[in-house]
Amino acid sequence: MLHQKIGSDFAFAVEDYLQYIMGDYCAWNKNETEIGARMRDEFILGVRVDLGKKYAKVMTRGSAHSFIVLQDGGKFRKGDILMAASWAAPATNFSRGNVLTKNYGNTTWTGAR
Prior knowledge:
By secondary structure, this protein is of the alpha+beta class. The protein is built from 3 helices and 5 strands, in the order H-H-H-E-E-E-E-E. It is elongated.
């Protein structure tokens, strides 16, 4: 469904970004117990994207992780990663990276900084 709404190349770039976030969490959570495995599974299942008019909101376990710019305009380019200022809006001071160039900047599983 993501591919139909935003185009294949951009959707693949967003999916790569989500894989990066999930991989970063798994690298951080090295707990080899059953609890650690369950925590990794729950985190991975909680990563999703909600599409808006200007931004795609990346969610992790019900919280806003970051926002991705959907179209060129103003000071941001398509694919720019923005820090979440709140659950509903990005911080628009500067880009933290770009999903199209696979430059994720200081983005970790905890969010874009």
